[in-house]
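Entry for fe (ii) ion complex. Fields follow.
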Amino acid sequence: MKLEVSHTILNIKDSDVIINFYSEIMGFKLSDKGLIGGSGPEIIFMSQDEDEHHQIGFSVQRENLENSTQLNHISFRVRTFDEVKEVKRRLEDKGLEYLPLCHGNALSLYFDDPEGNTLEIFFDTPWHVIQPQTEIWDPNMTENQALAWVEKTFKDKPDFSKKEDSKREFVNRT
Ligand SMILES: [Fe+2]
């Protein structure tokens, strides 16, 4: 058996604000929305993958934004470094704050959605390193500069290796 993570549903308060944010900043498309059981609460389904009806969903049943949802963060991988830059640009265009963190194995931006749910966008580096690791990185660097910085910053940490090597080790774990 192999479980594959499929989707996350967040409880939210304001569907218009949330749909706009997840469309404009995160690039999701609306798949469907409607009232559960015909009378509510409203549920909104969004995806970026035609094979996945919803990767993220929102149930409009959060009463106030003061109470934390207890969610730590949801993380999304992008395939190119330029897409991290694109999200950075979109956030900056809207005057939204982000925290650039590098875990050695990934170059990430962390930021909050309009209801305080923390999101992460990350680009994989070619390396594995023992976790957890957290260093602030400069997202104005080019891809080559950033990868050179990652290697320099993490190469002396335990388990620093090419990702292929650490994958092989994981597969052999019981
Ligand atoms: Fe994360």
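NOTE: Residues 81-93 form the longest helix (13 residues).
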